[in-house]
Each structure stands twice: as C-alpha cells, then as structure tokens.
Design brief:
Largest sheet: none
Radius of gyration: 23 Å
Number of helices: 15
Oligomer: single chain
Strand content: under 5%
Helix content: over 70%
Number of strands: 0
Distance between the termini: 37 Å
Length: 280
C-alpha cells in the first residue's frame, strides 16, 4: 500500500568558488544532486553523495542533504535498511525536517517496522501543514499492521485534502473490504475508476471483489480492463482464469494461467491453477 514516488529531498547549496580548482572531486560531488530514477542515475547519486560525505568538507544542511539524497537512491534499489540509516544520519543534523522524517518513515514501513514508521509519520505531519502524502502512507502503514479504523481515518482526511485523488478511494476500499464493508468498498472503487479510467489496480481490486462474490461476468470485465491498461499484470491473468474456470471455459482459463506464468515464471499459484485445470 505503500506509494512508489517519494517527496523531493532538500536541494544542496552550490559548491563555493573556493573549490573550483578541485575539478574532479567537485564533478563527482555534483552527481549527488543529479536527477533520474534509473539504476545508472542512482549509482551516480550514491557515488557522488558518498564522496561528498567522506570528504569531510560538508557540514550542517549540506551534509544532511547528501545523506538524504543517498538514502533516496538506496531506497530506489530496495535497500531499505541502508536508506533508513542514511535518513537517520541526515536527521541527526536536521532533526525537524519533515520531508526526511517522511522518507525514513517509508523506509521503516518497507522494513515492516511499523511502529517506528508511524512515529516518524506523526512527527512529519506535525511539522508540515497538510502533508497529504504522509497521511496517505501512514494510512497504508496502519492498514499493514491491522489498525483498520485508524487507516480509514487517515484516508478520510487525505480525501478531504484531495477529493479527486483516485488512489485515496482505492486505498480506503481495500481497508473497507478487509473489515467486511464490501458495499462501501465497491462504491470507493467505482469512484476511483471514474476519476482515473486507467487505474489498473482499482479495476483489479474491483474484479477480485466480484470474483469473490461469484459475479464472474463482472469480474471478467474488470480483469479485461486491468489487463488492457497493464498488459503484464500477471495476477489479473491468473484470476481472470479462475473466473473462466468457474464458468466452465477451460481453454480460456488455461490460456490465462499460461499468460500469467510467461509474465512471472516463478508464479506458483498460476502453476497450481493450470495443473488443476489440466486434470479436469
């Protein structure tokens, strides 16, 4: 439940003219401020920030920014423990920085250190007015630890701030469904896809709810939409196959299970479903 993009970290101050003669290290240091989210860019950022940190020349906010930028790049590689460590180093220098608190919270949540994540989200929200992203992610963290009422409260507040945010309706629907409030969950998913007609995960979630309730034709229609939007959606293929299976459409079911396996070769559930179908 957690969101894939983080807030922008602090932009470091430009290097002073006194370092101009040291062209090689300065060029490397500048990579610490580089933009980009692919692997080569992240590696450059990590190398540049490491050089800046280890130089001993940076202090205060500039050093905090180097740690934070390196932490963000580490997070992009799913190195959540390293990211959390870098954010902690940054916060030792700027303890009240709401954005870095938020980033460390997301790393803690990814590590399933939910109580620490919530504590950081609390501090970030207290320090930054209308911090919608932190509310959304705190709600997701409450959901992950089973605190459903608190999760719904956070998503309600998030939607008050952003009433046209499809992701908020989708997230609240998942929590409502977990509590058994299926009618309200379906209403939220209806609103999510109304606001964003290309929201594959919302179509998928609604399809799964229809499948669970044995509304197979509606489930197939929503799985179709999810696959149209996201052709590599292995789970949508698998569960559309389950809907076809229940309708007695064995050939279509096997085709979908096979598609799921092509997309995700280690997808054990799809192998199980296809094997069962072959035995029919």
């Amino acid at each position: 439940m957690l969101k894939p993009s983080l807030l922008a970290v602090i932009v470091t101050a430009a290097l002073t003219a006194g370092f101009a003669a040291q062209s090689a290290p300065v060029d490397e240091w500048r990579d610490c401020d580089a933009m980009g989210n692919d692997a080569p860019a992240r590696n450059r950022i990590i190398a540049g920030c490491t050089a800046r940190i280890e130089s001993g020349e940076e202090k205060g906010d500039n050093l905090a920014a180097a740690y934070a930028n390196r932490g963000e790049a580490q997070y992009g590689f799913d190195r959540f423990a390293e990211a959390a460590s870098d954010y902690t180093s940054a916060l030792m220098l700027t303890p009240d920085d709401a954005d870095i608190l938020y980033q460390r919270a997301t790393a803690y949540a990814a590590l399933k250190r939910y109580d620490e994540a919530i504590a950081d989200f609390d501090r970030a929200i207290a320090r930054k007015r209308n911090f919608a992203e932190a509310l959304y992610n705190r709600g997701g963290t409450y959901f992950a630890k089973g605190a459903f009422e608190r999760a719904i409260a956070d998503f309600n507040t998030y939607l008050q701030m952003r009433p046209r945010a499809a992701d908020g309706y989708h997230a609240r629907a998942l929590v409502r469904n977990a509590t058994g409030a299926t009618i309200q969950a379906l209403a939220d998913l209806d609103r999510a896809v109304q606001l964003d007609a290309n929201y594959a995960e919302a179509f998928y979630a609604r399809a799964v709810m229809h499948l669970t309730a044995e509304r197979d034709d509606k489930a197939i229609a929503d799985f179709n939409e999810a696959i149209r939007i996201k052709p590599d959606f292995a789970e949508a293929y698998r569960y559309r196959g389950a809907a076809y299976d229940r309708k007695g459409l064995s050939e279509q079911a096997i085709s979908d299970y096979s598609a799921a396996i092509r997309i995700k070769p280690d997808y054990g559930g799809a192998y199980d479903s296809r094997g069962y179908e072959f035995l029919q």
